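Entry for iron/sulfur cluster complex. Fields follow.
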Amino acid sequence: MKQSPQFAQINRECVACGCCEAVCPKDAVHIILGITAQVDKEKCVGCRKCAKECPADVITMVQRRAVV
Ligand code: SF4
Ligand code: SF4
């Protein structure tokens, strides 16, 4: 399967509200230990739904080719 050019990345300001988890169509983001959201880069299709939904605005989209 071809990977999307981008994936979502969550920074440390995440407040673990779960909004991203609720909207992700690919089940690619989950709250870990009740403290932060974490993205499964392999599942993420870069749709940005989580980033639009995040009330704390802590999700950025990262280019895959920029990540070594
Ligand atoms: S960009 Fe889309 S697929 Fe990726 S974690 Fe966010 S909602 Fe899920
Ligand atoms: S929506 Fe934003 S603040 Fe809420 S859990 Fe997801 S990344 Fe964290």
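NOTE: The mean pLDDT is 94.
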